[in-house]
Amino acid sequence: MSNEALKRTPLFEEQLALGAKMVPFAGYEMPVEYSSLIAEHEACRNSVGIFDVSHMGELRLSGAGAKDFLLRMLTNDLERIDEVGAAQYTLMLDEDGHIIDDLIVYNTGGEYLIVVNASNRETDLEWLSSQAPGDVEIVDESERTALVAVQGPKALQVIGELAGKDWTAPERFCIREALLDASLPALIARTGYTGEDGVEVFVHARDAVALWRLLLSFPEVSPAGLGARDTLRLEVCYSLYGSDMDRTRTPIEAGLGWVCPKTRSGYVGAEVIAAQREDPPAEVLRYLLLERGIPRHGYEVWSPDRLLGQVASGSHAPSLGRGIATAYLPREDTKPGTKVEVDIRGRRFPAEIVKPPFYHAQ
């Protein structure tokens, strides 16, 4: 896709002014880094990193049948978020049990806000719309919504100062309204993709620049790009759609069976998941820790005498000083503790299959 065809978030000009290096991502022109990946990664682990994630999609579902419809379309138990303001990580599957998308659904009171992956926004909207009964309305609010992730051990302190002394931060996986700097209306969700505590701030697209500048007025806040977002999420083993899972994989294969409660049935793809629990798939997602070398997507994973699979996600982990990766490998031959090798530019580097996560955020 040419740069002319790429979309831009409301913060595009702000990112250029900060010297961001821009790259194509999910149909958007997005910042991959501002200063350096490692500096931005460490800022999020030690202080506050802010990420423009306005490319994500936001769908709002309402109507008398919205809850029953989502109970059928999503794998996790929506009954667990009956309280207004509660949120849940979940999956949407097709009839074959393959993952259409992973998403977060928020109960915003009489309706549901669903945040979907940017690359899947149109697919998700089409799928939901094709399945929805007449008493469910689905509205795509993506173009008029901006989303900024504020992540790190000092994130709540920053948001608390902007929201005022009478505001209380939501609990983890909950969402709450706020008026930032006494004039900027926002929805504050205690969610994120870094493993650190923090929030994701929803504002109208017209308020995105004001929010961004407010956040950057704090000396402890640093802008961070897609590069740091990827290393942060990989260290804590948060899956990336398109790499660690896609339309060819089921939740059981992708290590996401926990998002499909065993007590649940009746959702699209449920029969496949139940069958795979009884007869596990041959390949599953595994986690590799290397002594040396940096694994990348597509690199081969070997036992001493045979090819086992390929790296799904791979990178240097700044918090560990080691290479880390995920890969779909034979389930029986690659249990935690198994030694394997990763082919990096024609040379094999030793690795060990480990239990997730690679890193525990403080």
Q: What's the arrangement of secondary structure elements?
A:
Elements: H1 12-17, E1 21-25, E2 28-33, H2 37-46, E3 48-52, E4 57-62, H3 66-73, E5 87-93, E6 99-107, E7 111-116, H4 121-131, E8 137-140, E9 145-151, H5 155-163, E10 175-180, E11 184-189, E12 198-204, H6 208-216, E13 221-223, H7 226-235, H8 270-278, E14 283-290, E15 300-302, E16 307-317, E17 322-330, E18 339-344, E19 347-354
Helix pairs in contact: 2-7
List keywords for this structure.
six-stranded mixed beta sheet; 362 residues; 19 strands; globular; 34% strand; 8 helices; six-stranded antiparallel β-barrel; alpha+beta
Describe this structure in words.
With 362 residues, the protein is an alpha+beta fold. The chain has 8 helices and 19 strands. The two termini are 40 Å apart.
Question: How would you briefly describe this protein structure?
Answer:
This protein is of the alpha+beta class and 362 residues long.
Low-pLDDT parts are none
Helix/strand order, N-terminal first: HEEHEEHEEEHEEHEEEHEHHEEEEEE
Main sheet characteristics: 6 strands, mixed
Given the structure, what is the number of helices?
A: 8
Quantity of strands, as a count: 19
- Report the radius of gyration as a whole number of Å: 21 Å
Distance, first to last CA: 40 Å
- Mean pLDDT equals 97
The assigned structural class equals alpha+beta
Strand content: 25-35%
Q: What is the 3D form?
A: globular
Give the % helix. 10-25%
User: Biggest sheet, strands in spatial order?
Assistant: 10-11-12-9-3-13
